[in-house]
Amino acid sequence: MDIKDKVVIVTGASSGIGAAAALEFGREGAKVVLAARRFERLQAVAHEIELMNTGAQALVVRTDISKFEDIERLVNQTLAAFGRIDVLVNNAGFGRLDWLEKLDPMEDIKGLMDVNVMGLIQTTRQVLPVMIRQRSGSIINMCSISGLVGTPTYTIYSASKHAVHGFSEALRREVEPWGIHVSLLYPGGVKTEFAQRAGIKRKTNASTPNFMVLTAEQVGKAVVKLVRHPRRMWIMPWLWGFTVSLNRFLPGLVDRMTINTFTLPERADEITNRN
Ligand SMILES: NC(=O)c1ccc[n+]([C@@H]2O[C@H](COP(=O)([O-])OP(=O)(O)OC[C@H]3O[C@@H](n4cnc5c(N)ncnc54)[C@H](OP(=O)(O)O)[C@@H]3O)[C@@H](O)[C@H]2O)c1
After folding, report:
1. Which CATH entry fits the domain spanning 7-247: 3.40.50.720, 3.30.420.40, 3.40.50.300, 3.40.50.1980?
2. How far is the CA of 220 from the centre of ligand 1 (A)?
3. Ligand 1 pocket, 64 CB below 6 A?
């Protein structure tokens, strides 16, 4: 798909990967619709796009993706402004990383599922009739390595991204006859505001090695590439593919490695202190 003049909705475009992808679409001369809750941050991204001199246009729609009426407004305002929707980037999402019993049932569990899963499904559901009418479209869903491999403290986040994986695989097989492509991106660690919001508390220094950490710009560029060349799955960086394969074919070994090197050292105090 040639991206110039295409109408692209990017959810979660106020920071991180979404903002980087929106700017990348702007560089290609697209009509970019920016959706998220932080209006001023969206306006700043829109301003940068309009200064690009590529013929790109930007429309800001304040959207809480967990609210159905906001999703409806996002789709209606896009159609009113541009008359069609060529690309949907379902990127809005967040993580709350802690032991399951310590997560807040409403904010950290229901709230996360409402954004990462229900928001993504409902946005796709609202955009789909437009793409079916057009007999064309591209849907890029932001998954994660956590959508393929479960890690302690990532229970709810991992459940949400496994849901994105399953939803997208089924959808891809539903909509292909209408010329609609569904692509999935599985990044590992990306340097964004994600970590701040996730509230990671580690006793050990366990984290993704620096050489495996991506920038938002690298992932933003990958999103645009997926519009040109749709792919069922793109694991970033590719080295994570080894972990995914090990987890699939030798899950018992991965259990032992994870529990011994992460769970036991992280929970040592709690395990010895029974009060
Ligand atoms: N960073 C990583 O290591 C990593 C790795 C793999 C996958 N991912 C995925 O990449 C996506 C983007 O995350 P990021 O790393 O770029 O983090 P980020 O900088 O925190 O961006 C998250 C985006 O999601 C939006 N968002 C959150 N709740 C929302 C809601 N209720 N309604 C609308 N928008 C909402 C935020 O906008 P507002 O707060 O303005 O609403 C923000 O634009 C997420 O789906 C995340 O799960 C991240």
Report:
1. 3.40.50.720
2. 13
3. yes
